[in-house]
Amino acid sequence: MASNDNQKQTNKNHTFYQSFRHALEGLKTTFQDEKNFKRHLFIAALVLLAGLLFGVSKLDWLWLIVVIFLVLIAELWNTAVEYLIDLLVEKHYDPLAKKVKDVSAAIVLVAAILAAIVGVIIFSPYIF
């Protein structure tokens, strides 16, 4: 932010601290505004708990962490795209804006499907 906190920042970040603070603000906003982000975090917590309970291998942990973060990144990306489209169309329906939002949501869906497949591969030997 600018040196005076009462002013809104309109230029690029000049320090790592500014960038980090804005990134944390983005996470906070997403967590507060997006129910799906909360759902993904809840599911991630369950997966991590299952990994602890089943004592999965280091390689399995790596895969679980990668797909968890992939889903969270996809959800953050989707949220950013939705905000941008809403800003551009100003609450008016636009068929192209709908396509962009739908494709952005599909990114999250594909990431979640991948995560589910990895989860089944890793946990099915422990369950069955």
Features:
128 residues, mainly alpha, Helix Hairpins, 4 helices, 80% helix
CATH architecture: Orthogonal Bundle
Helix content: over 70%
Ends: how far apart?
53 Å
Instruction: Give the number of domains.
Output: 1
Q: How are helices and strands ordered from N to C?
A: HHHH
CATH topology: Helix Hairpins
Percent strand equals: under 5%
* CATH level 1 class label: Mainly Alpha
**What gyration radius follows from the Cα positions, in whole Å?**
18 Å
Major sheet: none
By DSSP, the count of extended strands is: 0
Sum up the overall morphology in one term: globular
Q: How many helical stretches?
A: 4
Unreliable stretches: none
Describe what you observe in this structure.
With 128 residues, the chain is mainly α. The protein has a single domain (16-127), classed as Helix Hairpins. It is 80% helix and 0% strand. The chain has 4 helices and no strands. It has helices spanning 16-33, 35-54, 58-89, 95-127. Helix 2 packs antiparallel against helix 3 and helix 3 (58-89) runs antiparallel to helix 4 (95-127). The protein is globular, with a radius of gyration of 18 Å. The termini are far apart. The mean pLDDT is 93.
